Amino acid sequence: MILILGYGLSFFLKQKKFKDSYFLGIGSILTSENPHFEDIKDKRKIVFGTGIRPSSTYNEFSLDKTWSVKFLRGPLSSGYLGNKHEYISDAAYAVRQLAAFSDIQNTKKKYEISIMPYFHSVQYFDWEKIAKKLGYHLISPYSEGGVEHTLREIAASKYLITEAMHGAILADILRVPWHRFVLTTPYTEGERISDFKWNDWMGSIDIPRADTTFIPFYKKTRLHEPIKKITGNILSTNFFVKSQVQDHLMKSLSSKKNYTLSKDTILSTIDSRIYQKVQEMNNGI
Structurally, how many domains does the chain consist of? Predict the structure, then answer.
C-alpha cells in the first residue's frame, strides 16, 4: 500500500511502483516521538518535502536504510540530519503541478484582506465576529468545504493575515502576499517547534525574516504582583483573560501590515525541482 499525506500528489504519482511504501508528503512529522513510525519501521518510507519536528526530549531522529529522502522542507530540517539530504520547500508547492492549478490561481479577487487563525485558536474566540468587525474575510483552517475550496478562498484574497503556517504557504503558492500573527502557537504547539517550522520553510524560499504581529495570549492581572510578593518572586502568574486578549487582538490586527511574498524566480526554481523529483519517482529512481 502507499499512504499519501498531502493534497494532489496522488494525481500524478504512479502508485503501483510504491507497493508497501509509505509516502510522507507534508507536515512536520519527522521526529523520534512520532508513534506511527514504530508501526512501519520495516517498511519503505518515502520523504517528499516533509520537515523535522524538534523533539521535546532531545532524542535525535535518525534514518536507516528503510528511508528514502527525495527532499526535505527546508535548510533547518536538512541541517538537523547533518546536511546529508537536499531540501526544496514544503511539499504543498506540488499543487502547482496539477492541471487545475492555473484555474484555481486565477480565481477572481473578492476579498481585500482575509484572515486565517491557527486551528487551536478557533475555540477561544468568535472569529466570524472578529473578522466582520475588522472588515476582513474569514478563512477557516479546518477546510470544511474541502481543500480546493480553501485554495480558491485564498486565491480570491488580495492579502492574507494568517496564524496558520500552511495559510502562509498556500498564499505564497497562489501569489497572495501574507502577514503572520502569533497568538496561541507558543502555548499549544510550543514556541521552539513553531519557530523551527516557520524558519525552516522561510529559509527554503529565501525569506530570512518576515514582519510578524505578536499578540500576548496570557495577561497579568491584579493578582500578579501580590503572588510574586508572597512567594518571594518565585511565582510569576499569568492568566487568560478573554476580553483583554480579544481587545488586543482586534487592535493589533486592525493596524496597517507589511506583507511578504517570495520572488517569482524562487518559485520557478521550486516548480522545476519538484517536477524533476516527481519524474524521478515515476521512473523508479
Answer: 1
